[in-house]
Amino acid sequence: MLGIIRRDLMLVWHNKRERFFIIFYIPFLLLILESYEPSWLYLTILVAYTYLLSIIPFSYDIKGKSQYIINSLPITRKEIVFYKYLSTFVYLAVIIVYAGVYLWIINRMGIKTVDYFDLEMIKESIPIIMILTSIVYPAYFSFEPKIAQIIHVIVFVTFFIGIASLGSLGDKSIVSNMEFLSGRGMIYAPIAMYIISLFLSMRLYKNRDL
Amino acid sequence: MKIIISNSSDEPIYEQISKQIKGMILKGELKEGDLLPSIRGLARDLQISVITTKRAYDELEKEGFIETVQGKGSFVAAQNKELMKEKKLKIIEEKLVEVVEESKLLGLSYEEIEEMLKILFEEV
Amino acid sequence: MDYILEVKDLRKEFKNFTIDDISFKLEPGYIMGFIGPNGAGKSTTIKLIMNLLKKDGGEIKIFGKDHVKYEKEIKDRIGFVYDENYYYEDLTINQMKSIVAPFYSRWDNNQFNYYIKEFDLNPRVKIKTLSKGMKMKFSLAIALSHHADLIIMDEPTSGLDPVFRREILDILYNIIQDDTKSIFFSTHITTDLEKIADYITFINEGKVVFSKSKDEILESYAIVKGGTDLLDENTRKQFIGLRETKVGFEGLTDNLNNIKSTFGNKVLIEKASLEDIMVYSVRGKEYVRDY
After folding, report:
1. Most buried residue among A18, A163, C31, C241 by CB atoms closer than 10 A?
2. pTM (two decimals)
3. Which of C50, C73, C102 sits opposite A72 (nearest CB)?
4. Are B96 and B69 members of one domain?
């Protein structure tokens, strides 16, 4: 049910701190990653935003046990997990539009030249997002929120360091660096990982005491 | 229609209810065919349990004072005039037995009680 | 369906605490009060019923169906109110409602607006600005706005003033006018239940002490008061709980006949309140020599 997705979007948007973050993170990234390629920047924004958008709703469970409410509604644990995994792609779509418009404005204002839509990068972002979330989602579904948060931070920081070092390989275009990822075979692994993660989360969440 | 229950009385609430309804029927304040409040409505008005009002009504039905029709409610049953008189007398008889027992315990004579009755009938 | 809620031999083990052999049944059209001291297992039982915690043993049936197997269709007909407000604090009442409402097949927006108005709530304010009482009213508004057949409440009135608690009772009475609906209500404030409850289940230290109709309970227990000279080894045994002071004793019994034959009219016998029953049952024989 779209209720879960609607809830996530509302939670992110209606919290002042999160909203502030969503609006200013793009310029922030553009600022600290000045020298990197436009397409690489675009990729980073896509992945970072989609990933964070997916994770933020989980943080609400740390403060108040809102899981009690959601789980008391007519929805099964399996469905909660399934819609979460589905929502990742919804957020990606949302971010593509959001970042697209935002970056387009930045381009027009002449602040910086940056890709605001790049199909290739979108395709590249998908496996990365899937890999990141397939590690972190099960953590949130089975561990205490605080512990899961630690895992999330580790994963995210690792991603950032990884992508930063890849990007800083200088002249070599990020695209060529990523070429090894766009081979047909390589898309299957992340998909498989995502699906395995889905079933794992369902299993873990089904038997969990909230 | 008036039903007042006392929480501090020793008498169980369901009995208080059935007694009061019985009284109203015997006095003619409630007539044959009159609809009584639903057991749930009465429970809400008196702020007591539905089981209590149900019990009161069950007793009234057992003694022939009311009839319950599924889906419609409870109605005052046809009261045979003879039976009514008998029921009234029975209630008074029960009370008088208590009075007689107590008088004998305290050593009062029949004449003293009779005197008291006379006065009370005039005063009350 | 015979019972709207049926719990049989429910068991759950924690590290320091176990609830065991929990059994009780509730028919449609009645209110069951679930009482017990803090930590007795009331919230745990409710969480197990709602499948928020996983049971280790036993059976739970709601509307005649297994509560896990048919979880979704069952929860569609359950209105729940918990003691802590677990809603998202940064959202407004309307926003929270817009998240919850689509989950229910019989959501009634008119009813929701009616309750919001009745409860004097402003739907545009953020949940975090609401007082505890208002949060509870909001929870209740949600619980009552999707034509639920079973209302489950976990300590909904703790921390609320008596005026407000009476208002809640009025609302519950109105719900129960429909004899197909039931209410299951846990609390340690027994005065709330003394009026309205049809059945009472008393839980202590993870076990059910009794589960009977309220009338039956209040009729079978009594408070006995008398002089301490009347007590000795044997007579003390007749009490479930006893409190002795320099000026006399007060005890709880569930066997009035025994007491009457033992003490005759040397003792004063009074009605026991639910609170008396709970306190004496919990304190038991330890509640002695309380000077």
Report:
1. C31
2. 0.85
3. C50
4. no
Is C103 in contact with A75 (Cβ distance < 8 A)? yes
List Cα–Cα distances, B24 to B78, B96, C285, in angstroms: 14, 21, 48
Q: Cβ of B69: how many Cβ atoms within 10 Å?
A: 9
Nearest CA in chain A to C103: A74
Residue of C nearest to A19 (CA): C90
pLDDT at C184: 96
Does residue B1 sit within a domain?
Answer: no
- CATH no. for residue B65? 1.10.10.10
Tens digit of pLDDT for each residue in C188-234? 888 878 888 999 999 999 999 999 999 999 888 999 999 888 888 88
Name every chain C residue with its beta carbon within 8 A of the beta carbon of A210: 47, 52-53
CB proximity under 8 Å: C 192-221 to B: 195-199, 213-215, 219
Give C150's strand partners. Answer: C78, C182
Q: How many structural domains comprise chain B? A: 2
Please report the pLDDT score of residue C291 as a whole number: 46
Closest approach of A74 to chain C, Cα-based (Å): 4
Q: What one-character DSSP code corresponds to residue C29? A: T
B100 and B57 in one domain?
no
Neighbours of chain C (3+ CB pairs under 8 A): A, B
Domains, chain C, with CATH or none: 5-214 (3.40.50.300), 221-286 (3.30.70)
State yes or no: ipTM above 0.95: no
pLDDT digits (tens, 9 = 90+) for B53-91: 999 999 999 988 899 988 888 999 887 777 778 878 888
| H-run or E-run covering C44 | helix C42-49
Q: Where are the beta strands (DSSP E) in chain C?
A: 5-13, 18-26, 31-35, 57-62, 65-66, 78-81, 150-154, 182-187, 199-204, 207-213, 222-226, 241-245, 248-253, 268-271
The residue range of the domain holding B118 is 81-123
CA distance C183 to chain B (A): 13
